[in-house]
Design a protein that fits this description.
Number of domains: 2
Strand content: 5-15%
Distance between the termini: 24 Å
Bound molecules: pyridoxal-5'-phosphate
CATH architecture of the largest domain: 3-Layer(aba) Sandwich
Oligomer: single chain
Mean pLDDT: 97
CATH superfamily of the largest domain: Type I PLP-dependent aspartate aminotransferase-like (Major domain)
Largest sheet: 7 strands, mixed
CATH class of the largest domain: Alpha Beta
Order of helices and strands: HHHEHEHEHEHEEEEEHHHEEEHEHHEHH
Shape: globular
CATH topology of the largest domain: Aspartate Aminotransferase, domain 2
Number of helices: 15
Length: 418
């Protein structure tokens, strides 16, 4: 292996094809057979496959109830309806997430209140959650961002002390665990997206899980009219002809895909984790590079790329952009990046142009200003990402490690040519 940097005309350290190692979702013969089998039944709108998937998903999590949805956003809307979030209620969540986390709060005519994040993980900062609690706060939606479980002990402690219901948005974190417990089962309700890029991809789909029968049945009342007449609570039967106005049933084709993907979830999560740990252990040996591994009580999912920290002072103040440029020239897919997001500054909150904001209970109650969330608005500058390959060959990972080796070894030379 030449030690001349690729950026200076040397050979690249990474020569193996990375597209296969990165390919996701995995659509193999098993998935194709499941979809074909479903198509052959002719049941492409409703099928027992949906119930079978729900039973398997509930079993996997060790919970009583799983309710499949047509997407993850719908599952969060159902969760909020189930727990009775309504006009004037406040729900605390983070702005560093996809809109499917917090727009269902507005759809419930309630008020999203954004808290700040842990700058290394992007998950809610439990101390900041507590700062945002008011007498109107009803619930917290915890996002396990990128697959990293949030600090659930502290979040549950604050929430229990203030009588708040905890909804976990596990859309990035299927199969991740915190102190041995699966995410989605630590709070009161767990919600999952199964959109194509997720760790459990069904195409489109979502699931809500809980141990609370009444919340499960209320969620059914919102968007699953076909099940209402069979609910254990007879008070709900009268809503059978209309439900509460949404149709949230998952497609049986998606349920068929999800059943297959669920069977492989743990093994595929482990594969990604093994790849990340191998890479982190390898590159962590070099000056200036500090992999950010999860705490030992966490098993992380890798929906998003893992982060590493860069200490420029250990590489003669080599600027991070130059380090990244050199690593990319070696053929790696590293990138600059740290958790963050300023969705509280987007038009819907600034213009308050959503029917929810026209309600008197909400009208003047809350503002969304720049500077409200310093850590979300200004992600750390000393971080970058490395890939979490779903299926990397060890040779590819060794080539990545060699790329970091070459570039960090040649920091002085790199600096000379800036
Ligand atoms: C954190 C998070 N929550 C909720 C959702 C909503 O899921 P869906 O796209 O399936 O509606 C997503 C989707 O990407 C997400 O990333």
């Amino acid at each position: 292996m030449s030690s001349r940097l690729a950026i200076h005309g040397g050979k690249k350290a990474v020569t193996l094809d990375q597209s296969r190692a990165s390919q996701w979702p995995i659509i193999d013969d098993e998935v194709i057979a499941a979809v074909t089998g479903q198509l052959k039944t002719g049941e492409i709108s409703f099928s027992n496959t949906i119930y079978e998937f729900e039973e398997e998903f509930a079993d996997y999590h060790g919970v009583k109830y799983a309710l499949a949805h047509n997407n993850g956003t719908a599952s969060i809307h159902s969760a909020l309806f189930a727990i009775g979030v309504g006009p004037g209620d406040e729900v605390i969540t983070t702005a560093a997430t996809f809109w499917g986390t917090y727009m269902p709060i507005l759809s419930s005519q309630a008020i999203p209140v954004f808290c700040d994040i842990d700058p290394f993980t992007g998950c809610p900062d439990p101390a900041d959650v507590e700062q945002r609690i008011s007498p109107n706060t009803k619930a917290v939606i915890v996002v396990h961002l990128g697959g990293m479980p949030a600090e659930m002990d502290a979040i549950m402690e604050v929430s229990r002390r203030h009588n708040l219901i905890v909804v976990e948005d596990c859309s990035h974190a299927h199969g991740a665990t915190y102190k041995g417990q699966k995410v989605g089962t630590i709070g009161d309700i767990g919600c999952f997206s199964m959109q194509a890029g997720k760790l459990l991809p069904s195409g489109e789909g979502g699931v809500m899980i809980t141990n609370n029968l009444d919340w499960h049945e209320r969620a059914i009342c919102l968007g699953h009219y076909e099940r209402i007449s069979k609910l254990s609570n007879p008070d709900y039967h009268k809503y059978s002809p209309t439900c509460f106005g949404y149709k949230y049933r998952i497609s049986p084709l998606s349920a068929a895909i999800a059943r297959v993907q669920l069977r492989h979830l743990d093994q595929r999560n482990k594969q990604r984790d093994d790849n990340v740990m191998y890479l982190m252990d390898g590159i962590g040996a070099f000056s200036g590079i500090y992999p950010l591994k999860p705490a030992e009580y966490i098993f992380r999912g890798y929906y998003s790329s893992p982060y590493i920290r860069y200490h420029a002072d250990e590489l003669n103040e080599l600027p991070k952009p130059k380090l990244i440029e050199a690593l990319r020239a070696e053929g790696t897919s590293v990138a600059s990046g740290a958790p963050g997001g300023s969705n509280h500054l987007s038009a819907i909150f600034q213009e308050r142009n959503h029917p929810a904001f026209s309600r008197p209970e909400i009208q003047h109650k809350i503002t969304y200003r720049k500077g409200d969330l310093p850590r979300s608005e200004k992600p750390r500058q000393d971080m970058m990402t490395i890939p979490a390959f779903p299926a990397a060959d060890k040779i590819l990972l060794d080539q990545y490690i060699e790329a970091f080796h070459k570039v960090t070894d040649n920091a002085v030379e790199l600096l000379k040519k800036i």
